[in-house]
Amino acid sequence: MFKKYSLGGADYVIISLTLLLSAGIGLCARYFKGQQIISSDYLLAGKNMPKFPVIFSIIVTLTSTSSFLSAPAEVYKYGIAFSIHIFMIPIGMLISSSVIIPVYFQCEVSSITEYLEMRYGRIIRYLVSVMFLLQMVFYMSISLYGAVLALSATTDLSFEASIVSLGAVCAFYCSLGGLKAVLWTDCFQAILMITCLLAIYIKGISDAGGIFELFQKASSGKRLDLFELMPDITRRYGFWACATQGILVGVSFFGTNQVEVQRLLSLSTIKRAKSTLRMSSFPVCLMYTTCCFLGLVLYGVYYNCDPILNKERTGLTKYDQIVPAYIATRFSSYPGLTGLCIAGIFSASLSTISSCLNSASTVTVIDYLIPFFGKDNISDFKIILLAKIVSIIYGGLCIGLSFAFLQSRSIHHLTQVFIALPQGIICAVFLFGMLTRKAGDKCISFGAVVTYIIMTWIALSTLYTGYVQPSLPLNNSKCPSSQNETMSESIFNVSSSILPSSNTEKNPFVLYKMTFMWYSFIGFLLNILLTTFAVLITGGWKKNVIPAGSKYLSPVTRFWMDKNDDSNLELK
Predict the structure, then answer these.
(1) I need a labelling partner for 329 at 20 to 30 A (CA). Which of 12, 386, 399, 435 fits?
(2) Among 251, 275, 247, which residue's Cα sits nearest to residue 99?
(3) What is the pLDDT of residues 211-257, one digit of tens each?
(4) How far apart are CA 39 and CA 382, in angstroms?
(5) What is the residue-wise DSSP string for 324-346?
């Protein structure tokens, strides 16, 4: 009978100290050189942040529970082909730094949706704003749920208490110190995350029999097949799906997502923002790769005794639980080390939630509350107060919604459906506006709405049908057969007999079997096509809605636009 692992006193002390220090950094950011006189002090950290904390925050903001728990689980089940998209992210980040980021500084915005109203009009601003807020609420909830569920399933940590504690601490320091508190707290949490990863790597490689033995097992289990060039939309991690997804992640998350862009807007100049994003590209790639390749290490450890196939003895039911299960089983003999690693997982969740809370509150205040009260009738003090209240409200909503995902099969699948799906659509809206002078509010809104409906239908249908793409072979041939033998005593026995996994799900419509790695690209492409179609049928192709030298256009457009050609110009 499976019994959860009990944490020691030292573990609880370290976890508690992590939460207290995170809250303490928020207090310091507020009361020590943390003046909040004008709204930009709170929302954009006074636009005078040094590069160091911004780079750290960019790295860890999207290194969420999905990266820490489900990415290793995906590599464990499907191999390192998953990591192809990570190597493409720096390309997208380079595009963002050159094409997109300069436009926000030209327009002097605090929220990137402000740009949309300047370029198109109010309709698309509020449409994208709603998409973004829904995206962030789900992202925060999934990140919080994933960390707590995985840990509560393998240790004696309370699911309910952990969710409330993490959510409350995060909402506290985020609402109190604003973006400055989030940035400095991310630096502290990055150290914990890196420490956790190093501990698992050192112990895991040793348990797997060394690096050579580890790669031998991974090769035998077909985990090292990287380039599958045959186009197949149902293949979970095909090369083309991963490559396009990686570039789009780099462009969309680091160029058209308020969470990451807000960090860059906290810097004083365009030049510093562009160089900071480029400097971040390599460490971002390294961090994500380190998280992913953790799956290879764990595959080497559980090569002959998969803990989920042996769930009667392990009690594990989801592959998202494999990382915390390994921590609980292997580090319990080292006082405090289990707690330190759990603190690292909690930090991955905290860094994501705090960043999303701050960005969601910024968008809510700037897009909705300031226009509601009237820009001339609301003081900076009230703006800051409203932002703090909104952060607390979103924190409570995040805690409540986390309980809605209890029946999910994969954190990564949830993340792709609710997070990556709208990002391609939003990215298309921004790029169409920054690279062309065509399309007004109605045309771009038509394209975005229709695309969002189509992509949501496909994504939710995939979840509803419950189709699970077959994993690579898994093995439980060397699991203990006697009641007295423990898993840790048998998992190192090598066996050449590998049992293939099976997929017993029904065979749904082909679009419902499409891998979620295509969602962003198809949403991006479909939005561009539908917007172009709307422009053509309305006669918008005959006229330009902004001048060639407009600040709403990206600097790169100078290579193909003649600034003297303003014929048929209709200024908004």
Answers:
(1) 399
(2) 251
(3) 999 989 988 888 888 777 777 777 888 888 889 999 999 999 899 98
(4) 9
(5) HHHHHHHSTTSTTHHHHHHHHHH
